[in-house]
Structures are given as structure tokens and as C-alpha cells.
DNA sequence: CTGTTAGCGCATTCAG
DNA sequence: CTGAATGCGCTAACAG
């Protein structure tokens, strides 16, 4: 069913049908109604691709996420998707995986679809190869990075002061008389590097030397990974008094490890996660966590992208401030 | 940059450029190379919409989810998205929300985009108004419902025997000498109705009368909701020996409630969730859960949709069998 | 081997 | 107020 089919049956020209569909003025009420009846009769819906071709606008936006299953990323995506759908855009949401070439390839796919805007979710997109791919494939469309930044004229970024936040977590533990603190990294990403830097900075300003910086990483970013990393810490540093984890999910494994070893949390050991995710509320004791404001971050991202779609200038940089949510594990 | 721009600079016709792009045979090696160089020079990528228009194929599929943030749904979406992206399709993933009219509207949006296939995630899409909207807007494209079914010629469904599974959960608790069992419903959906039916069936075959069927529901499908429902059960039936929850997330609230009341799990009270989700592994004690095979379900759905996209007959119905994962809470 | 022509479904001139 | 003609970017049938 095309406008020509409708036009023929209505005994008018296609352009008239088009005018009716788009509520353009200057149509006799009678013909307008006749056409509208036929549109309804055949459940006619215009083809977005054909319309996009002539209008030079796809009304498509891309949302790239390393892994859509990661709770805090999909939470952000939800906020943005809702906002954009409300404004008549369709969201192409894709899981790119961690490999750099893949991310670049997905940017190419988005160019092929002629998206009008892009969201890059998470700091993992802040790599040289992504930057290259953007310059090559999407040098003009507005792009907003959630918790990341690339210095390109069409790219904006909303970030959070995770480093300062983690440093304050160190302060918190020290204030509770627990200055022997380890830090667990679930994976290597720009955001996690910042967190680690914050840990080091916080430790130093609380009088720790290099030998007191206990850094741990892990094979896989899972509960089990956090469990095993925590056991390693307990083995190697039986006098540890606090552990900060780069994400809640992994911290939850730490809570379990402490329990299995018969260590009292928070009495003997203070535990802190990051993300303020549901996981922290589920585990027992409930997890103290650094809220990195992902909700607010995504709202800002959506709003910046909206402005970009409307043609406003881009290349904005916005910072939010993290906040410690103290619960039962400290 | 269009094929005409490339053609002009290469001194050939647009159709020649098109042939080169699509690796069609019958082009002199020399011209092919000359064109390819220009394509690379300008980072030319063909416009998917224009190509789709003439090929009569959008290579777009829609994935509708009530709420993309729900862990077990997004896990399924991930599996399907990966499979389809690998085959060159782009996935439009949308959160519809629970309202029926919204769901119908999103189906209309998918028609507008001329999607070639649709995934409907979760039993919540099994409503009359969705059926109506499919008949009206997408009567021809292959549609696969994950954990649901509609009797339409172009709709397939993969479902799981949740009722039988829940009945077996009742058996399990009874076998452990805990025949006084309550059932907690997190929300009203066809899938949850099945679960409840399974509970009733299981109770009856273990000798329970109508007065022994303790059914509870809740305001909101959250940890807190499960917490409060469980407290209500403990107040109204202090002799309760087991509780089955319609989803893990809510069961986790129950674990917490039992803990706060000083009730030993599983000693005094056996707790069972449904979904085999990450939540069950996080909480303490780890949750016994009914694995409703969502992973396998989504793989089947992806494979059925793939066949549909290749033009194979649809209207399949497939059933998977749930399985109890016994952990620490029973 | 390559160019010309037509048409996918639509919106937008410009005439009338 | 309406119709005919044109073009968006691309592929395909047909000629040469």
C-alpha cells in the first residue's frame, strides 16, 4: 500500500494524499476526508525509509553499549531511550563487546543507517580507534559520551568525579579507624583507572606510603571474581581493614568471601562498592556504595543529545559529583 | 557523498560504482580498482535506507520489551541481538511500558520502519490489543514471542512449563517436611498466572485443601515489595514453612525479611525464587530457584526468527522444561 | 564490459 | 485547491 494506491482509489494525485498525511493546509475539506477514510480503511502507514530519503533525515539514533546486560549501563540506556522515543526517534541499541575493532565497526554500521545522533555508553569508548572511526564515519552527527570524553568537535561528554569520590571513600574508612585498605579493579577501563587513581590519592593524603597501596585485579568481572580476589587479599594481608571495589557486583562477592571466612562486616572489615546498584541493596549486610550519579548522567546526556539533534552547538563537557551512600558494610 | 559523486570522479556511470560496491562480476579489473580507491578515499558507505527502498528490505528487526531494565529480559534480548546483528540486521530495541495501548503503538512504529521481523519479550505481550495491532499493522512479518503465544499465522512462540516447574517446587518443599507453603506474586501477567496455577496444583496433589492455599501479591515488583509481602505472611501465618516467589528479585526481599525476623533459612523456612538470575547467587543464603530456561528460550526464539527472515514457515510453538536449581535456601 | 533508463515510496516545487 | 513533474540514493533490467 503506497500513496499512489490511495491516490488512485480516491481519484486524486499522490501529492494530495501526501498533503493530507502531513496535515498540510490548502485541501478542500471534502477531499481531505475522502482520503483520510481510505487511509484508515487500509491502515496506511508511510514508509519511514522513503520519507527519510526525501527529507534527508532518518530519525534514527544509535546507542552503543559494550554489554547491554550490565545493569548500570542498561539503566542509563533506558532513560535515554525513553526520552528519544518520546521525541519520535528510533533507537538502535547495540552491544559492541570489548574489542576495539568491533566498536569501530559498529560506528560504521551507524553511519550506514544515517543515524542523526549517537550515545556512547561508558568510558570504554574513549579509545584512539573509536576516535578514529568517528572522524572517519560520523564527523558531523552529534555524539554524547556517558562517563567518558573524546576531544572531537562533534562529541560531548558527561562525566563524574569518580576519582575524588573514591578518595572520599578512603577518607570514610580512615575516619572509622580502618586505614589499611585494599582496592579491587574489576577490569581495565578509563573509568576504573580514575577510580584507582582516586584510591591512591586518598591513601596518600591519609598518610599511606607506596607499600600500603594494595591493588588487586581479577580475571572476570563477576561475583565469583570478587569473591576470589577478596580471598586473595585476606590471605596476603590478614590485617586488611577495608576494601573498595570498582563495582558493586564484585563487592558483593567480597561480602560473601568475608562471611565464608567468618570475618565480621563491618566490625572487622569495611566494604565499599561503586555504582549504587540494586546489587548493593540485595546483599547482606547492605553495601555502602559510591553513587556515581549514573541516572543524572544519562538524563544530562539525553538532554545534550536532544539539543544536538535540534542543531545546537555541541562539544560540551559536563561534570557531576559522586556521593557516598552509607549502608551496613562500613 | 553518493555513488554519483564517485562515478563522476571515476569517469564511469553510477551503475558501475554500484556493481563494484556489491561485488558484482563483469567489471574490468582496472576500473574496479579505480572505483575502489575512490570509495576508500572518501570513506563511502552506501545509504541503507535508499538501498532498502529499492531492495524492498530494511534489514531491521524490532525487539519489544516491557521494561528493558528487567534483568532476565535484557539477558534474552542480548542473545537475540547478537545473533541478528551477526546476520546483518539492525535491532530496534524498545521499552514499551506495561500499558496495552503503548504496546500497540510501538507495533505501529515498527510497521513504519518496515521491520522484517519482531521479537516480543515476555508473556505481557499476550493480550487482545497486541493481537489486534499485529493483525492490523504486521500481519505478514515473522514474529516470535519469548515465553508467550498468540494464535496468529505469522506468530510463533517459545514457552516454558512454568506451571509444572512450580508444582515441582511445592513437591520439593513437601519432601523436606515443609508442606505449609505460601506463594507470592510480584505482578499480574500470563506467565505469573501459570506459576500460581502450578502452585495450586502442586499443593493439591500434596494433599492441601483450599484453605491451605496462601496467595499473596504486592504493590511493586521490587526487593522491598518482597520484603513487605514476606513480613505479612509471617504475621498472618507464623507457622509457614516455605515460600515460593514468582521472581528471584522479590524472593531476595524475602530472604532479608526472614533474617530481620531472626528466622533461620532454610532450617525454619524454605525459600524458592524463579528465574535463576544473578540475584539468587548474590543473596545470602544463596537462593534455590526454578530455572525457567530463559537462555535456551531466547536462543530458540532467535533461531525461529532467523528461519522466518529466510522465508520459512512460521506459527511454531515450542516448549522448554524448567528445572529446579537447589542452593542454600531450601 | 559498461552506460542508459526506470523505479522503489515519498515530499516538494511549480503550474494551472 | 489540485495535479504533473522532479529528485532523494540506490539497484536492476536492458542495450550496446
Terminal Cα span of chain A: 65 Å
Largest sheet of chain A: 6 strands, parallel
Largest interface: A-B, 47 and 47 residues
User: Rg of chain A, please?
Assistant: 26 Å
Strand order across the biggest sheet of chain A? 2-1-3-4-5-11
Q: Write the element-wise H/E pattern of chain A from the N-terminal end onward.
A: HHHHEHEHEHEEHEHEHEHEHEHEE
Total count of helical runs of at least 4 residues of chain A:
13
Seen as an oligomer or otherwise, the chain set is: homodimer
Mean pLDDT of chain A: 95
Any idea what the shape of chain A is?
elongated
CATH class of the largest domain in chain A: Alpha Beta
User: How does CATH name the architecture of the largest domain in chain A?
Assistant: 3-Layer(aba) Sandwich
Structural class of chain A: alpha/beta
Number of strands of chain A: 12
Q: Helical content of chain A, roughly?
A: 40-55%
What is the CATH topology assignment of the largest domain in chain A? Rossmann fold
Classified in CATH, the superfamily of the largest domain in chain A is Response regulator
Number of domains of chain A: 3
Strand content of chain A: 15-25%
Question: Which ranges of chain A are low-confidence, i.e. pLDDT below 50, for 5 or more consecutive residues?
Answer: none
Structure characterization notes:
- Two copies of one chain form a homodimer.
- With 330 residues, chain A is α/β, with parallel strands linked by helices.
- Chain A folds into three domains: 3-46, lambda repressor-like DNA-binding domains (434 Repressor (Amino-terminal Domain)), CATH 1.10.260.40; 58-160 and 294-321, Response regulator (Rossmann fold, 3-Layer(aba) Sandwich); 162-291, Response regulator (Rossmann fold, 3-Layer(aba) Sandwich), CATH 3.40.50.
- The first copy, chain A, contains 13 helices and twelve strands.
- Chain A has helices spanning 3-10, 14-21, 29-41, 48-55, 71-86, 100-112, 128-137, 162-175, 190-205, 223-236, 248-260, 278-282, 294-309, and strands at 60-65, 90-95, 117-121, 143-146, 155-160, 181-185, 214-217, 242-245, 270-274, 288-291, 317-320, 323-325.
- In chain A, strands 2-1-3-4-5-11 form a six-stranded parallel β-sheet, with helices on both faces. A six-stranded mixed β-sheet of chain A has the order 7-6-8-9-10-12, sandwiched between helices.
- In chain A, helix 8 (162-175) runs parallel beside helix 9 (190-205).
- Chain A binds a DNA duplex (16 and 16 nucleotides) through residues 2-4, 12-16, 18-19, 21-22, 24, 26-28, 31, 46-47, 49-56.
Amino acid at each position: 500500500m503506497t500513496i499512489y494506491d490511495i491516490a488512485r482509489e480516491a481519484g486524486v494525485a499522490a501529492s494530495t494524499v501526501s498533503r493530507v498525511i502531513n496535515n498540510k493546509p490548502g485541501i478542500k475539506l471534502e477531499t481531505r476526508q475522502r482520503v483520510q477514510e481510505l487511509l484508515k480503511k487500509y491502515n496506511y502507514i508511510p514508509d519511514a525509509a522513503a520519507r527519510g530519503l526525501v527529507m534527508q533525515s532518518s530519525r534514527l539514533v544509535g546507542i552503543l553499549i559494550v554489554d547491554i546486560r550490565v545493569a548500570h549501563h542498561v539503566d542509563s540506556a533506558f532513560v535515554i531511550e525513553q526520552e528519544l522515543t518520546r521525541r519520535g526517534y528510533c533507537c538502535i541499541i547495540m552491544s559492541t563487546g570489548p574489542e576495539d575493532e568491533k566498536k569501530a565497526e559498529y560506528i560504521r554500521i551507524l553511519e550506514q543507517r544515517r543515524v542523526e545522533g549517537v550515545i556512547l555508553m561508558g568510558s570504554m569508548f574513549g579509545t584512539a580507534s573509536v576516535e578514529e572511526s568517528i572522524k572517519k564515519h560520523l564527523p558531523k552527527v552529534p555524539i554524547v559520551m556517558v562517563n567518558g570524553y573524546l576531544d572531537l568537535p562533534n562529541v560531548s561528554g558527561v562525566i563524574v568525579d569518580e576519582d575524588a569520590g573514591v578518595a572520599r571513600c578512603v577518607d570514610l574508612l580512615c575516619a572509622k579507624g580502618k586505614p589499611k585498605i585494599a582496592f579491587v579493579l574489576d577490569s581495565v577501563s578509563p573509568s576504573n583507572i580514575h577510580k584507582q587513581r582516586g584510591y591512591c590519592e586518598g591513601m596518600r593524603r591519609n598518610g599511606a606510603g607506596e607499600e600500603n597501596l594494595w591493588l588487586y585485579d581479577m580475571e572476570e568481572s563477576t561475583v565469583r571474581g570478587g569473591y576470589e580476589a577478596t580471598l586473595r587479599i585476606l590471605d596476603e594481608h590478614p590485617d586488611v581493614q577495608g576494601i573498595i571495589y570498582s563495582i558493586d557486583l564484585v563487592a558483593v562477592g567480597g561480602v560473601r568471601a568475608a562471611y565464608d571466612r567468618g570475618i565480621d562486616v563491618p566490625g572487622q572489615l569495611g566494604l565499599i562498592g561503586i555504582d549504587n546498584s540494586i546489587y548493593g541493596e540485595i546483599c547482606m549486610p547492605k553495601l555502602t556504595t559510591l553513587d556515581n550519579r549514573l541516572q543524572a548522567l544519562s538524563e544530562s546526556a539525553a538532554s545534550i543529545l536532544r539539543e544536538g539533534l535540534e542543531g545546537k552547538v555541541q562539544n560540551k563537557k559536563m561534570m557531576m559529583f559522586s556521593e557516598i551512600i552509607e549502608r551496613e558494610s562500613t
